[in-house]
Amino acid sequence: MRVAIFFATREGQTSKIANRIAEHLRAKEVTVDVVNVRKATPPLDWSEYATAFVAASVHALHHEPEIIEFVRRYRDDLHRIGAAFISVSMSEAGAEDMRAPAERRERSAADAQRMVDDFVKETGWKPERYLRVAGALRYTQYNFLVRFVMKRISRQNGGPTDTSRDYEFTNWPTLDRFVDEVSERLRSP
Q1: Is the domain of 87 the same as that of 165?
Q2: Over 90: is that where the pLDDT of 119 sits?
Q3: Residue (of 20, 170, 17) closest to 92 by Cα position
Q4: Are residues 88 and 27 both part of a single domain?
Q5: Are residues 146 and 182 both part of a single domain?
Q6: CA dihedral sign of residues 143, 144, 147, 149
């Protein structure tokens, strides 16, 4: 079985997620191709893939433009092989923050879902399965302006504001379970 993982990222958390999916599948003896769509995408032979994962980070309330363009171009192929979508955002981090008030978590969850819904509208692709995943704050990698803006947004949402370090919010066990569910479906008759 061969699976493709297509991703787009800015600071690297979605790349880390894509590579985690690949490692998880390879441990199950699945052949995996990992493709960063921000770079030149090689010609694709979709008949080689049992399925695919499309992972995209959110910045300024929108998914990466490269992944939107990629999905628009290949949406019929993605649909045919039952590809799964992974939306990576800080809104999901807020939705999963059990220390936050319920109202704030609900608002964050609604924002994260709205971004998935907008992605579906923008691309015309409605994935059979999707997962919202919390991303990371990469304060040490941001320029001054981005660090200032992200700190302000984080403060407003009750998140960390120490810009001398980075914060990772991805729930790895949840991601692994999702990958297991998708790959088990492929093994079922």
Answers
A1: no
A2: yes
A3: 170
A4: yes
A5: no
A6: negative
Same domain, 62 and 140: no
Q: Would you say how long the chain is, in residues?
A: 189
For residue 89, pLDDT over 60 is answered with yes
pTM to 2 decimal places: 0.92
- What's the rounded Cα separation, in Å, for the pair 32 and 11? 23
Name the domain count of the chain: 2
Nearest to 55, CA basis, from 96, 12, 15:
15
**Residues 101 and 11 placed together within one structural domain of the fold:** yes
Half-sphere exposure of 2 (CA within 13 A, CB side): 8
One-letter amino acid of 58 = V
Print the domain residue range for 178. 2-135+170-187
Instruction: Return the SS3 of 43.
Output: coil
> Which helix (H) or strand (E) segment is 185 a member of?
helix 172-187
Q: For residue 134, list its beta bridge partners.
A: 89
